[in-house]
Write a structure and sequence with these properties.
Layout (H helix, E strand, L loop, with lengths): L16 H13 L14 H13 L3 E5 L2 H11 L7 E5 L5 H8 L3 E5 L9 H7 L5 E5 L8 H11 L2 E5 L7 E2 L2 E2 L6 E5 L12 E5 L2 H10 L34 H12 L1 H19 L6 E2 L6 E2 L4 E5 L5 H13 L5 E2 L24 H8 L1 E5 L6 H22 L1
Parallel strand pairs: 2-3, 2-4, 4-5, 5-8
Antiparallel strand pairs: 1-9, 6-7, 6-11, 8-9, 10-12, 12-14, 13-14
Helix pairs in contact: 1-8, 2-8, 3-4, 3-7, 9-12, 10-12
């Protein structure tokens, strides 16, 4: 009898009791707006910003409405405007080129390697086309950040890090989000801290931080940002920076603060599950596991593998066969967008040039979520199901 998995790949763990209690307290007093505080009170949003800045070693932090808003705000704060070009990964999710388009700029896509990280040769070839790289640590894969910073410094390129999938991760012991000028994080439901929606932006640059705070809709209340720069950083900016409101509220901050306190523990739990999948899918004929660098301290909240050289029809069959046995796989090589997966050539607003080498990688790229509500032993079952279905179809493919 075939094994079947009956769990859910979209069910999250409950909010910690401390977060529930803090959220109820905010709802009882009704001061959800970050600037609405009682005498002597420090807003939950301010406390979250201070604690998150400390956790990653940043001078400044801003809590905002979403990770996508953080990306667009970072671009604006660096002076990116209509008609500019911005380099970014070809392997990413739609909100990344969407943030570039939101400020009127044009994405220039940089290729992806078989390890699912930025192709440095392609980056070097395109380095003169833009002054900003919006680097997506897509699905938690971190490229060689030492080498990347060398290339970008050589060409005068400023890095914004999209850390939606790498909160709690690091390269060479330096936290994700601290390699570039700005680091942007997401607190959407499927990320490493869950407030439904929400984002965080970190930087050491006082002007960038001041611009971001003003863009987020601080009015003249920016001095309440205790994780922000000093008042003088705002003096020349307050009359020229538009208010594009995107603040985080105290309710979401109250939910997030206890999750930040246990983030390291949660990351370790994700990696145990990732390891169970990796062990179960090694040495499967026709399936390639993505190898990780020893310098990459990643968070395994999702898992990717390649089916190199497979036809589109066979990959589609593999996804369908696994789905019949309860395993929800996503295919980044599908011709049409589906769920959260889409390819760069479906983002017509970006008018992308073809990238044949990257197309070959994306054509066989399969993804699945690794929620903490599924146990490591259940992930071993999931790996066996994938192994059996991929192995059976590979035999017919060859």
């Amino acid at each position: 009898m075939q094994e079947v998995f009956s769990g859910s790949f979209t069910q999250q763990e409950p909010i910690p009791e401390a977060g529930i209690a803090a959220a109820i307290d905010v709802m009882r007093h009704g001061r959800l707006h970050r600037y609405n505080t009682a005498p002597g009170e420090t807003a939950q949003t301010v406390l979250l910003e201070q604690e998150f800045a400390q956790s990653v070693g940043a001078r400044y932090c801003l809590a905002v409405a979403s990770g996508g808003y953080a990306l667009a705000t970072a671009l604006r704060a660096l002076g990116v405007t209509g008609g500019d070009t911005v380099l970014t990964n070809v392997f990413t999710l739609a909100p990344v080129p969407g943030a570039i388009a939101a400020v009127g700029a044009v994405p220039v896509f940089v290729g992806v390697t078989d390890e699912l990280v930025l192709d440095f040769d392609d980056l070097e070839a395109k380095a003169q086309q833009a002054r900003v790289l919006l680097l997506s640590h897509m699905r938690g894969h971190i490229c060689d950040m030492n080498r990347l910073t060398e290339i970008c410094e050589k060409h005068g390129i400023t890095i914004i890090e999209d850390c939606a999938h790498t909160m709690g991760a690091a390269w060479d012991e330096k936290p994700s989000g601290r390699w570039g000028k700005v680091g942007c994080f997401s607190c959407q439901t499927y990320k490493h801290m869950n407030s439904g929606e929400g984002g965080l932006l970190v930087t050491d640059d006082p002007e960038v931080a001041a611009r971001a705070i003003l863009y987020s809709g601080s009015y003249m209340l920016y001095e309440q940002h205790l994780a922000g720069p000093p008042k003088e950083a705002f003096d020349d900016l307050i009359y020229e920076t538009p208010n594009i409101s995107g603040r985080m509220d105290n309710l979401r901050a109250a939910i997030l603060r206890p999750q930040l306190a246990t983030l390291a523990k949660q990351c370790a739990r994700w990696n145990v599950r990732y390891a169970a999948l990796e062990a179960g899918l090694r040495d499967v004929p026709g399936l390639k596991v993505i190898e990780r660098s020893e310098k990459e301290h990643f968070v395994g909240s999702s898992f990717q593998f390649l089916l190199p050289g497979w036809s589109a029809e066979k990959i589609s069959q593999a996804v369908e066969c696994c789905a019949r046995r309860g395993v929800a796989l996503k295919w980044f090589g599908a011709s049409d967008p589906s769920g959260y997966t889409s390819r760069y050539d479906s983002w017509a607003y970006a008018a992308p040039d073809p990238l044949p080498a990257s197309d070959r990688v994306l054509a066989g790229l399969v993804d699945l979520r690794v929620p903490l509500t599924i146990t490591p032993s259940e992930f071993s079952v999931i790996a066996r199901i994938i192994r059996e279905e991929v192995g059976r179809l590979y035999q017919t493919e060859t």
